[in-house]
Each structure stands twice: as structure tokens, then as C-alpha cells.
Amino acid sequence: MGHLRMLKPLFTIPPHWVPIRCIQPRYCSNLANTSVTSRERRTTVDKFKSQISSGPSFQDFIKGVSVNNKTYAADGECEEHSYLSEDLEMGNSRKVYFETYGCQMNVNDTDIAWSILQRKGYQRTVDLREADVVLLVTCSIREKAEQTIWNRLQELKAMKKRRLKTHTPMKIGILGCMAERLKTEILEREKLVDVLAGPDAYRDLPRLLTVADGGQQASNVLLSLEETYADVMPVHHAPQGRSAFVSIMRGCDNMCSYCIVPFTRGRERSRPVSSILEEVRMLSEQGVKEVTLLGQNVNSYRDTSEEQFCSSDLTQLSRGFKTVYRTKQGGLRFSDLLDRVSRIDPDMRIRFTSPHPKDFPDEVLHLIAERGNICQQIHLPAQSGSSKVLEAMRRGYTREAYLDLVKNIKAIMPEVSLSSDFISGFCGETEDDHQQTLSLIREVGYNVGFLFAYSMRKKTHAFHRLQDDVPAEVKQQRLAECIRVFREEAARVNAALIGSMQLVLVEGESKRSAKDLCGRTDGNMKVIFPKEDVAAQNAESNTAPVNAGDYVLVKVSFGGITTAFVHRGPQNQRKVPYTGLRCS
């Protein structure tokens, strides 16, 4: 009180101030100004209170509170309050048409979204004319990818207008990265899109479509720190059960300065290993012959879902590499997952994409070399051959460190096939930087490459901190030079396969000729060979027809490939005796 008395003079009201208390009535509407009886006013208030009481209460939004015999647990495993009845969220056999653009992750996202909608009674169609709902699973990695979607939406707009005259209205939805990046612009641009769902909001699709049926646009683009869809078993649409994609992690923490992925896919989180193994076992039982493990940074997989995985061991990186984030510790690592997956079915090929060069410690490389059904094909995105440009890209390595990794990989796996990504014309790239990229391509010798001109993306580090100062025509010129050199080196590398024996997983009939079949080698190289009965290994008859899903051992010849015999699987492909084979 002593302190208050000392401050009292500061709050003294001047004598000429007269305190006046004004009370003004507050009106909820113009109706309140009209003369109504007290009974009518009570009736209106009671009706309003009744409407409020029929809706959700404050307790509905608090975890750990029991409301109407529904328990809301603190761990999040609660029964959610539904504002739409189950009947309203059912698809009622409406037909959904998917179009998928971009990376393999979007293919897997399509399978996940379809699995969720199928449970709600939707049907899938491959005929756009039959569709009640059209969902575009989109990519936002480059401007060209987004422009493709805008052009497609204009085509669908005309179809939607025609549909209004004869059928129930067609609903159009944008899913994936473009929905996450552009959000409001997509909803407002010509009011064409009915549903918007980001990569972490596919569970909400039934509700969003129900809201859209009421004539409103519906959107959910919230990113999650936990969503992996571990409990959603994708409905795979692999042709004839030949191959399938299995998502093992989502998001990316690398924050490369050119990349939009961390902003459209969110932070890294890994799917529990038990869920992954269950899906791979199911695919094996279905006769799938090849599984590709997917993730934005697939080899940084780190499962911390079980306490036994949470040790104090620090994550091991490739020698000479670093990250922009603090070193992580604990968790079941990629090498552990790869080991367990490869043991499920020795006759099933295992691939993975897309990795980051920093996450190839020796334990991963030795496992790939030792395990017969893990393909000796590694995607090793370089992006540039200049250390200066790599630093601006925030890649976490130099040209020298990258070449040391390549040398280490080839020492452990002499027959490895390498592929890579390159960006031409990144911010500040000089002609000397470009020449260093060309020399890197020549020095490494890749089988396959993915090359693009730089396209600046909003929200990225480059957008905020760097200047896109390489003219468009220079970007295209440098890109053309990279492609030319890449093709020259790929031809040289692939020519070294002539005379070698390759185990090929048959994909089906060749597009070039109905008389030929096509398939892929362990190194993911596409090969074409004659459609004819071949010598059968471990079979009662001498010959057997070749079908999609078969493994066929072939000999590469100059100007063609000669089929040898049907092979059981990849488990002994690196120890197959080269005897009894026909030569061209």
C-alpha cells in the first residue's frame, strides 16, 4: 500500500473533470430498435439459445473432457466431433477421375487419396466423360509444371459448363503441392476449383467434397508435423502387378535455396517401420516383383515411433558433407529399414528415390552391394559442378566432396549405375561455373539424367536473398549444352554393357513393335528384346513364354539384345553362370 500511496498524486483527477457514466443500449440487429413486447423478445432469445445449444459446446474443443459419452483423450486418439453426418460424407457410387502430374511421390499420393475415397463409397473411372469428381494431383517444383495445370483447368472449365446442362455438376479438385503453394489464388481465379487439399489433408477429402456439393468452395492446406498416412493402405494401380511405390517418409529439412518442397510438403517425418514392412509383405503376397521406396529425402529416413529406437547415436553423413540443421540423433535409420525390407522377399527388387548425397554413409553402400535384390542403381543429384554455385544452393557439399563420394560408391559397387539432377542457370552462375558442370558430367559418367533450366519459386531462400540474374536465353543455351554432353557420356557408359549378361524385369509389350518386349535391368536401363519363347530355368519343359512380371536373363549384343532364358529372380543375379546362352 505504501507504493500505491506514493503513486497516488500521478493519478489525481483534475477538479474540472467531471466523471460521467454513459450507458448506451447495444443492438444485435435493426429489429432491436423496433417496439416489441417483452414476451416477443424472450421468445426470440429462447429460440436463439436453442439454436446455440444444438451446436458444439466449448467442451467439444477441449481434450480430456467427456461430452455426451464421447471421450476425448489427451493423446489425440479421440473420437472426433463430426459436423456432417456419415451419410453426407459417403460417395454414393459417384465416379472419381484422377490425373497425376510430377514425381513418383504424387503417384503414391494418388493411391492414398483413392484409398480414402474408396472407403467412403466412391468409384474410380478412367473415362473423364463419366467423372462426377475430377482430382488433379499437382506438382509445383517449376513454373512450367504449374502452367500445365492452369492450361488443363481451362479445358476442364469448358467441360464443366457443358456438364451443367445434362448431368449433376462436375466437381474439380486440386491436390498436392500446387494447392499448398498457391492456395487463395487457385480458389479465386475464375472460381473454377471446388476443392483444394494439400499433401497432408487427404483424409479430409470426403468432407471437402461434401461441402463442395453444397455449392461452396472447400479448402484444407494445413501442413502437419506428424502425418505419414501410416494407417492408410494405398490402393496400388501397378500394371499387371509388376511394380509398386511405397512411401516411407514425407517432407524435407534440407532447405536448399532453390527448392519449394519444404514449403509445400513440410518438415521431415518418417513412417513407422512396422507399417512399411506390412505393406511390402502385402505387395509380395500379391505377386509384385519390384518395390520403390519413396521420400523427398528418402535416405534420411529416421523412425522414432518406438522407444527402443531412440538412442543417443548421432546421424552419420557421407564424408565431407554437412547440413543446415543440427545433427539428429536416435531412431531407426535407412540402412536398418533397407535391410528389413530386402529380407521380406529375396525375389523382389528393391529401389529407392529420391535420395540426397549427404545420406550415403558406408553402411548403406555396403548393404546395397551385399544384398542381391537391392538394385545397384543410385540416384545422386549433383545440381551443379561448381563449388561456388553449390554453396549458393545450400547443398552442403563441394565439388570435391561429391566426386569423393562417387569414387567411394564405385569402389564398393564397381557395376553401379548412377543418375543425377542438374540445374542450368542458377542465380549468379557464370560461364566458368557452367563449364565446371560439363566437366563433372564427363568425369562421373551417368546412365540417366534429369536436367532443367532454373525456375525461381516464391518463398524459397533464393527468392528472398538471391537475384535471378541469368537471362532466359542463356539458361536454355547452357541447358542444351548439358543435355548434349550428358547424352554423349550416357552413350559411352551404356556401350560398355555390350556383351554383358543383364537380368531384366519384363514390363510388357514394346511401344515400338508388337513383336518385341521391353523391361528394365538392375541398373534401371530400359531394354527391348524379341517376343519369343525362351529356355526355361528349373522347369519341366525346355522353353517357356515370356510374360510381364517375369525375370529374363539376356545378353546385350551390338545393335540388339538376345534373350537367354527365364530366370527365377534377382537373388542370385550377380552370380549367374554365363553358359548355354545364344549369341547374336
TrEMBL record:
Pfam short name (any one): UPF0004
Domain MTTase N-terminal: 94-214
Domain of life: Eukaryota
One term of GO molecular function: 4 iron, 4 sulfur cluster binding
GO cellular component term of the entry, any: cytosol
UniProtKB keywords: 4Fe-4S, Iron, Iron-sulfur, Metal-binding, S-adenosyl-L-methionine
Transmembrane segments: none
Radical SAM core domain location: 238-492
Name used for this protein in its record: Mitochondrial tRNA methylthiotransferase CDK5RAP1
Cofactor(s) listed in the protein's UniProt record: [4Fe-4S] cluster
EC number: 2.8.4.3
Enzyme's top EC category: transferase
Record InterPro entries: Elp3/MiaA/NifB-like_rSAM, Methylthiotransferase, Methylthiotransferase_CS, Methylthiotransferase_N, Methylthiotransferase_N_sf, MiaB_methiolase, rSAM, rSAM_horseshoe
Family: Belongs to the methylthiotransferase family. MiaB subfamily.
Reactions listed under catalytic activity: N(6)-dimethylallyladenosine(37) in tRNA + (sulfur carrier)-SH + AH2 + 2 S-adenosyl-L-methionine = 2-methylsulfanyl-N(6)-dimethylallyladenosine(37) in tRNA + (sulfur carrier)-H + 5'-deoxyadenosine + L-methionine + A + S-adenosyl-L-homocysteine + 2 H(+)
Record carries keyword Kinase: no
Any GO BP annotation: regulation of protein metabolic process
Origin organism lineage: Eukaryota, Metazoa, Chordata, Craniata, Vertebrata
SMART domains, alphabetized: Elp3 (SM00729)
NAD as UniProt keyword: no
